[in-house]
Design brief:
The complex is a heterotrimer. By secondary structure, chain A is α+β, with helices and mostly antiparallel strands. In chain A, 25% of the residues lie in helices and 25% in strands. In chain A, strand 15 and strand 16 form a beta hairpin. In chain A, helix 6 crosses helix 7 and helix 17 packs across helix 18. Chain C is an alpha+beta fold. In chain C, 30% of the residues lie in helices and 20% in strands. The longest helix of chain C is centred in the C-terminal third of the chain and has 20 residues. The chains are: A alpha+beta, B alpha+beta, C alpha+beta.
Chain lengths: 832, 187, 329
């Protein structure tokens, strides 16, 4: 790796050219209807709870009503006596633990010895109908021995005992420390030093569809679990493990989902319990969660306390940047280890910084577990960074848009923490929103009570590593071409609403020159489809997309050879388009696509091909460097205009301009929908959404409950709360993306909360260093002599010894200088 | 907790007989007496196009037209539907063809995950039945009871506006696109 | 899916039948109007009536008589949606039309009734929760428990009156008729409400709120209603300000009625502020400031709705001022 110092980044050799980047397209980039649109507008799309089978039983979970306790006894006698109840399951049936990450196998499908939050499931009642199951669940009697409740990260740090889990240090799940160069040294030499504390409240996905699962034994006795899951492959692994069945005896089907946003990315207890119930009763068993239970599943945004310290030179250039984060993880591991790493990993990919220091700590608490929500772990530090930059610019008298443009990481860089970035549309994004919003003319000049704020961000196009260590593809696509010219694509990808089915059909159609609607899809089925790791980390377009193109090109090659023979031309001259296969130098000469399939099948047998994708190995080699690398990064920028009322503190967004670096739009209508939808979700987080908890007076009660696990009490913006959003797309094809495309599902959320907070500052001159920015906090800031509302400090955290990883321009090879000896990773599968 | 587990009054477990017209077809059925219209539609009539996100009237996913009025089927006791007319999303198609509003939702990105779509379509159908040429503000107000977590609503408004034009005999609107800025990625 | 508990449904056709049913079935029976309050409560098992007396078949409850000149009588089953678009109501009692139009959301207003909105169960973040949630706090005194978690030392329940139309009807000086087996009882709207989160209505067992009587507006009279809530729709009020003033020929206030909603267990009449306004001019900023200060004193928000109570208390002052400024304008 060349390491030539250039403004806090390292240049890497230019990318190999890609002849596909500049071709003209049949379907890519066209505003055509999604292939799954019809079912959705007719109501014919079958979501998990829309499925039912003859003889189906219904299941309800009996959940803990105490936050932390030992289970002394579970008595199902009365429940079993209720007419209509067919079975009651308890933790005894589920001794084998599971969890999404191999290092956090800390869940039992039903609690065995302990409950860890209000909502933890203790028993399951299976009955002839759902109401009877619910009545039965109420009759299950559980005796608890209460344990001290750990209600916050501070309490977790203060009370190593009682341990919520038997691993970790006390109630610290995991903590990490990294020094990418000498940050204290850099800060000591800085012209200006900024230190801020921030808090980003937890919030939840709130998909409109509540999780549902239908489990049954098929006519061959195969346990089949149809479930609203974004990750059928990971559920497959967990269910097989817990139920003690060979994976080949379990089939997971992921029907289309009514939204996920990361909330259906863990294997869930109810899915596994339904499987067990089907095995025990021999009947189909369905469970459909209530909205309150979805709040218990959670896995949403971690509440994060942050301290950021940044040293800049006289021009504001970042010499050293330090981030410390403390995460309230809730009761289980979930993706928490990764979430914690993400609160530091992407801090470096937007603005040049010479040196970087990161400390992260995740604690267990007696609340529903946090995990990955849209933007996974990055909105929190992004909020802190973007607000701190606003403060730096204010102090130094620099236009914050100009600062961002001037300090943008250049394309083809390796950052201080060894993240390798390729195309970067950050500057173009910033310029687009600056121009459209009239930033230069209007900022600071809208009068008291009205303001503009800006922020920018970046997100990954898929995690560079799978959840469990292996050398296999992250995505596989299988194609079957039939003699009638039909194309069927098989892929484990899951449609959660983001449009993954459409991307799959579109890319195959593009390569084969047919219409997307001609491509039939079989997706999200562990028995029928090659593995795709699932809908998370914005990986689908890039990874599934590349696998789809790989497969389609192999099919195209077979057809081209067969067609070339008939046409008497070399295969390179065969073109595909309009449902035809033809001579590119004489497009009138050719045949139908169906005829080409028949010829290929006649010549070489059934036309079935496979394609797959695995991301390239990233340069980060230090322990922990596996979180953050991605084949590509998208960039976003936003300007938010607000009205902020100084008599009430009410903030009303007036308009939002957002630009997103998409690489290339595969479908511009769908892309715009993802952009506006991301802005919507970011705005909800910025203004009102809170996964908040209530602690009852300890003298009277040990209760620790969600303040309002409902659609009414959890405030998600409605039509009248949503301002107009104007969208810009920066299109510069990314060589690693399918036809140059990058992700769009998560990135545009990230700049919204900080841009809004910065706009409130422009409007009223106060800083709210917390999310959400509520009227109460704006009023508190207005009343405070510091003109600020936010955390006063950062808790004392016992950080581990830091890994010393020199940034690329300070030498090194991506390893830590003090790397502890690592046992060889147990790899699944066999390297060829 | 004994109080919450209802002591059944005599006969409360008996099924109710219900005659109701659904999407223009007379249906006659026996249902559990505690069921809401939502449950009867989904579970007894197999019309799963009507969705549910809270069952408490807080999300709008279960909206249907009941005697032509937009109502939330999760809060209508089935027993109160005797002799009434129900229109669900399954009743919007015209034979095999999509209705103009359905076409517009499909073409304008008005449906992403599709889970709020049925309720949105029913609310939009109800609105356009009363106001064939609504303003953007009127659309926002009419859809104010329908939560969507995917779209940010904008493409839904555009779909309603385009569908309204077609229903008025005008041409549909083309989908609104983002402004494209080219060639920014290489600095 | 959340489901209703088992119950037996009764469908009277006559008001007298409905009243007789309620009297005969006793406390195990509850009347059902639009269902938008009772049914969620039943699904959360806050209320589990063994008998539900459906009022939708009782035609008398949808009756309407009178006009703006003589006053209007509306049946209790009048839908909120029809109220918000009613030409006569819009012309003569626009504050009521506005309040009705600010309730919840369009589909809910198509279902919900005026009588139901007046009888809306008081709300509280410790009470409007599922049965298992309430079990996890040991319940509260409004249902099955001992303690009021809002004020654990308190002997009473502090659940909040959350109706939008109630403060308006109180400010308008409307009356309501309660019908029972024994006959009709007509009382001022304000007298329907009691300052107790549990016994929040003075409606007696067996009585049905059957009609609402709007007095004819007098010359110089104006009224308004402002609602504060987090979102633009669906949410219940965390504050409602209903104000009616009668202005004399010279522009001075002759009569004022300020009523605050959602800051107590019943609509709170701000009597001191109302008295203070008499003889004053609403265009005078100091008058508005003092009246707002006085009015906000009756606001007793507790920590049991959305938003913090200190902020709601402060907002009450600002919202009263806005209401008065609107009436001045």
């Amino acid at each position: 790796m060349a390491s030539e110092k250039e403004g806090g980044t390292t240049t890497v050799p230019a990318r190999p050219g890609d002849e596909a980047q500049d071709r003209s397209f049949h379907s890519v980039g066209k505003p055509i209807r999604r292939v799954d649109a019809r079912g959705k507008v007719t109501g014919e799309t079958r979501f998990a709870d829309d499925l039912s089978l003859p003889g189906m039983l219904h299941m309800k979970l009996k959940r803990s009503t105490v936050p932390h306790a030992r289970i002394l006894a579970v008595d199902a006698t009365r429940a079993l006596a209720l007419p209509g109840v067919r079975a009651v399951l308890t933790g005894k049936e589920f001794p084998v633990p599971y969890g999404i990450l191999p290092v956090s196998q800390d869940e039992n499908a039903l609690c065995t010895d302990k409950v860890r939050f209000v909502g933890d499931p203790v028993a399951a009642v299976v009955a002839v109908d759902e109401l009877t199951a619910e009545e039965g669940a109420r009759l299950v009697e559980v005796k608890y021995e209460p344990l001290t409740t750990i209600g916050s990260p501070e309490e977790a740090l203060r009370n190593p005992e009682p341990q919520i889990h038997a691993y970790g240090k006390g109630n610290i799940h995991r903590s990490v420390a990294f020094d990418f160069g000498d940050v204290p040294g850099a800060i000591a030499g800085a012209a200006h030093v900024f230190e801020d504390s921030f808090f980003y409240q937890g919030n939840t996905h709130l998909p409109l569809e509540q999780h549902a699962t239908l489990a049954y034994l098929d006519q061959n006795g195969l346990l089949t679990i149809s479930s609203s899951t974004q990750v059928p492959h990971y559920l497959h692994r967990a269910a097989s493990k817990v139920l003690g069945l060979p994976p080949a005896r379990v089939r997971i089907i992921a029907p289309p989902q009514g939204g996920g946003f990361g909330g259906k990315t863990d294997p869930f207890n109810h899915e596994i319990v339904a499987g067990k119930a089907a095995l025990l009763t021999g009947r189909p068993v369905k469970i459909a969660l209530t909205r309150e239970e979805v709040f218990f599943c959670h896995r949403g945004r971690h509440p994060v306390q942050m301290r950021m310290k940044t040293g800049v030179d006289a021009e504001g250039r970042i010499l050293g940047h330090s981030v410390e984060t403390l995460l309230d993880g809730g009761a289980y591991g979930s993706y928490g280890m990764a979430s914690m790493h993400y609160t530091g990993a992407l801090e470096t990919v937007t603005y040049r910084m010479d040196r970087y220091r990161f400390r992260g700590c995740r604690t267990f608490t007696n609340k529903p577990p946090c995990g990955p929500k849209r933007g996974h772990g990055t909105p929190q530090p992004r909020f802190g960074l973007e607000v701190q930059i606003d403060k730096i610019c204010e102090k130094l008298g620099i236009d914050p848009a100009e600062w961002r443009i001037r300090n943008a990481v250049p394309p083809d860089s390796v950052t201080a923490n060894w993240m390798k970035v390729g195309t970067i549309g950050l500057v173009a994004c910033l310029e687009a929103v600056v121009k459209a919003s009239g930033w230069k003319e209007r900022r600071g000049k809208l009068g008291r009570g009205r303001g503009l704020g800006i922020a920018a961000s970046s997100y990954m196009c898929g995690a560079g590593h799978p959840i469990y260590f292996n050398d296999m593809p992250h995505s596989g696509v299988q194609l079957l071409l039939d003699r009638g010219g039909g194309v069927t694509a098989y892929c484990g990808s899951t449609e959660v609403g983001q449009g993954s089915d459409n991307v799959l059909a579109l890319l195959i159609a593009e390569v084969l020159g047919v219409e997307p609607a001609d491509v039939k899809l079989v997706t999200g089925d562990t028995s029928l489809t090659p593995i795709d790791l699932g809908s998370y980390s914005s990986r689908v377009t890039l990874m599934m997309g590349n696998a789809a193109i790989d497969a389609a090109e192999r099919a195209r090659d077979r057809l081209a050879i067969a067609a070339a023979q008939k046409l008497g031309i070399p295969p390179e001259r065969v073109g595909f388009g309009g449902g035809r296969v033809f001579d590119v130098s004489d497009p009138g000469t050719g045949m139908t696509f169906a005829e080409a399939v028949v010829r290929a099948e006649s010549a070489g047998g059934t036309v079935g091909v496979v394609g797959s994708y695995r991301p390239p190995p990233p340069p980060a080699r230090y322990k922990g460097g596996g979180v953050g690398p991605s084949p590509a990064y998208s960039y976003s920028a936003a300007v938010v205009e607000v009205e902020a009322d100084e008599t009430t503190g009410i903030v009303r967004p007036v308009k939002i301009w957002v630009a997103h670096d998409i690489g290339r739009s595969l479908n511009p209508v769908a892309v715009r929908g993802q952009v506006v939808g991301s802005v919507y979700m970011g705005l909800g987080e910025a203004l009102m959404e809170e996964q908040a908890f209530k602690r009852l007076p300890p003298k009277l009660s040990s209760a620790l409950v969600h303040v309002g696990p409902s659609m009414l009490d959890y405030k998600s913006p409605l039509t009248l709360d949503m301002p107009e959003v104007e969208c810009f797309l920066v299109e510069d094809p990314e060589p690693s993306g399918p036809f140059g495309a990058k992700e769009v599902g998560q990135g545009p959320l990230l700049p919204i909360p900080p841009a809004l907070a910065n706009a409130v500052h422009d409007a009223l001159g106060v800083r709210v260093d917390e999310v959400p920015v509520t009227p109460e906090k704006v009023m508190a800031a207005l009343r405070s002599p510091s003109r600020r509302c936010g955390p006063e400090g950062f808790p004392v955290v016992p950080w581990p010894e830091a890994l010393d990883v020199p940034p690329p321009w300070e030498g090194g090879d991506g390893n830590a200088r003090n790397e502890p000896p690592r046992p060889p990773k147990k790899k699944e599968g066999v390297r060829p | 907790m004994g109080g919450s587990l209802v002591t059944l009054p005599a006969g409360a477990r008996d099924k109710i007989r219900l005659a109701v017209t659904v999407n223009g077809e007379a249906r006659d059925l026996l249902a559990d007496p505690y069921k809401t219209l939502l449950e009867v539609l989904r579970e007894d009539l197999g019309l799963t196009g009507t969705k549910h996100g809270c069952e408490l009237g807080e999300c709008g996913a279960c909206a249907v037209l009941l005697d032509g009025e937009l109502q939330l089927s999760c809060l209508v006791p089935a027993v109160e539907c005797e002799g009434r007319q129900v229109t669900t999303v399954e009743g919007l198609k015209i034979g095999p063809e999509l209705s103009p509003l359905q076409e517009a939702f499909a073409d304008h990105g008005g449906s992403q995950c599709g889970y709020c779509t049925s309720g949105m379509l029913m609310a939009a159908t109800w609105l356009l039945g009363r106001k064939p040429d609504p303003t953007r503000q009127e659309i926002q107000e009419a859809l104010a009871g329908q939560l969507c977590r995917c779209t940010g609503y904008q493409q839904i408004y555009e779909a309603v506006e385009s569908g309204a034009r077609v229903l008025r005999g005008e041409k549909p609107l083309p989908p609104t696109l983002s402004t494209v800025v080219e060639g920014g990625g290489h600095g | 899916m959340m489901r209703l508990p088992r119950f037996r449904y009764h469908a009277p056709r006559l008001l007298s039948e409905a009243a007789a049913l309620l009297a005969d079935l006793g406390p195990e029976a509850m009347p059902l109007a639009g269902g938008t309050d009772l049914l969620p409560n039943m699904k959360r098992r806050q209320q589990t009536p063994a008998h539900v007396v459906g009022l939708r078949g009782v035609e008398a409850l949808s009756a309407r008589s009178g006009d703006p000149a003589r006053g209007l009588t509306l049946g209790a089953m009048t839908r909120l949606a029809s109220l918000e678009q009613d030409g006569q109501v819009l012309a003569a009692w626009p504050a009521l039309a506005r309040a009705a139009g600010l309730v919840a959301s369009p589909p809910l207003r198509n279902m919900a009734t005026l009588g139901g909105n007046l009888c809306l169960d008081t709300r509280c973040t410790y009470y409007d929760q599922s049965e298992p949630w309430r079990a996890s706090i040991g319940y509260c005194m409004k249902r099955e428990g001992e303690v009021c978690w809002v004020a654990p030392g308190s002997e009473r329940c502090w659940a909040v009156s959350s109706s939008d139309t109630a403060p308006v009807l109180c400010a308008l000086g409307a009356e309501v008729t309660l019908t029972s087996k024994a006959g009709d009882r007509r009382i001022p709207a304000q007298a329907l409400f009691a300052d107790d989160g549990m016994q929040y209505l003075t409606r007696r067992p067996g009585e049905i709120l059957s009609a609402i009587h709007l007095p004819p507006p007098r010359p110089g009279e104006k009224a308004t209603y402002l609602k504060l809530r987090r979102r633009g729709s669906i949410d219940f009020p965390v504050l409602g300000v209903a104000a009616r003033v009668k202005l004399g020929a010279g522009g001075a206030v002759e009569e004022a009625h300020l009523v605050l909603g959602a800051v107590g267990s019943r609509p709170q009449a701000a009597e001191e502020a109302s008295k203070f306004l008499v003889g004053k001019r609403l265009g005078d900023a100091e008058v508005v400031a003092e009246a707002s200060r006085l009015a906000s004193q009756v606001a007793k928000p507790m920590q049991n709705t959305d938003f913090g109570l200190a902020w709601r208390k402060q907002a009450a002052r600002e919202w009263v001022a806005r209401a008065l400024r609107e009436l001045a304008g």
